[in-house]
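User: For my dataset I need records formatted as: sequence, then structure tokens, nothing else. Please produce one.
Assistant:
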Amino acid sequence: QVQLVESGGGSVQAGGSLRLSCAFSGYAYSTYSMAWFRQVTGKEREGVAGIHTDGTIDYADSVKGRFTISRNNAAKTLNLQMNSLKPEDTAMYYCAARAGCPFCPWFVGYTDWGQGTQVTVSS
């Protein structure tokens, strides 16, 4: 059974940085595609960034050039470095894992989710 635990959220002023981390509990972490999603209350959840088993990385257009996703297969962790944060980045951020579905778009097909960590960016 996979468990995901996020950490690193908080409050920051616009232009600041935060680093989110996700700890994966379970087996065969390297065989999972991983991603970060975010959701604002009352709005649909949206994909932020994804990293596949072969290291391929995808980003939402809204975060390209500002956010960096990375994974450490030995430590079974997923990270999201967020720079130049904007108020519109305020959301609950979720870590997600997907086994299989290698040809699915990077933002669909996730079956395991963390509880989320809140990111608040003030202007």
